[in-house]
Amino acid sequence: MEIYHMVMYWGCIYRCRPLPSGSRTPSVWPPSANVTSWTSRQLAFDSVRISDVSLHSIIARCPVLECLLLDGRISFTCLRINSSSLRSIGMSYGELVIEDAPLLERLLQLEPHNGISILVILAPKLVTLSCFSGISVSNKLVFGTTVIQDLRAGSITTGVCSIKILAIGIYNLSVDLVINLLRCFPCLEKLYIQSRVSVDKNLWRRKHRILLKSLDIRLKTVVLKNYRGIKSQVNFATFFVLNAKRLELMRFEGGTNNENQIYIAEQRRLLQLEKQASGGAQFYFTTGRGCQHRYNLTHIRHVRDLCTTDPFE
């Protein structure tokens, strides 16, 4: 399979020959003037300066493109996607409008420190989504009439039922925010949560007691990263323990305390696992795994990684 990278070289965009296995630095070669289409299924751009017209033209020349990686800061204004073949998009920065992508399955925000704006008009098979909410940048997701600004939705008239896997990176751990997202994505089955701090008390029993009577939580897997076992995090986690009736697996990823059996026993008591709503869920305490960056969600290091069904494991 041919893989192409686009890099900035003396102010021009050049096409690069297929990357050697494991390589991240492409070797540049001049593009052919008579090339009208490419057979590449994977295409990556890394910190390039490119006009909207040129970017759209390059993508249009890839009729069988399945994976598109937009890494780093790319200077386009707005990318509009109309593709009958594209299955995965990973991007770090910019504005994206998905006008028609019937096969798109994965849409991943890769970088927490850059603002992003995404409008999804037609992507009926979109299953996997990752997004951040920081303190210094703004992120916006729009699905039809549902507007999600910094992972907080306003009035929710119609949920986005196609999304089954969601990974979020949030500055402050908030059960209110997550409950709101469960209403936005009512068919969610896997949820990955990574936060930097846990300031809120995350008390939910009285505040959401009326909502919980009608909220159908379909989650089967919950992964809580950067777990330290403090009261705010315990309160947050017990929301899923006591209310997610279909829960099969909950994993707490943290530091070396997660290898201490005394600590684990105390956590299991505080989390009230004996009162779990599902009856048969498994609960695991592990040390941090996978992504080494403290505020990273995915394992995307190369465009080929976009082919992974679940890029958060």
UniProtKB/TrEMBL annotation:
Domain FBD stretches: 214-250
One Pfam family this sequence matches: FBD
Residue ranges occupied by any F-box/LRR-repeat protein 15/At3g58940/PEG3-like LRR domain in the UniProt entry: 41-193
Record PANTHER family: F-BOX DOMAIN-CONTAINING PROTEIN (PTHR32141:SF179), PTHR32141
Protein name as catalogued: Uncharacterized protein
Organism: Eragrostis curvula
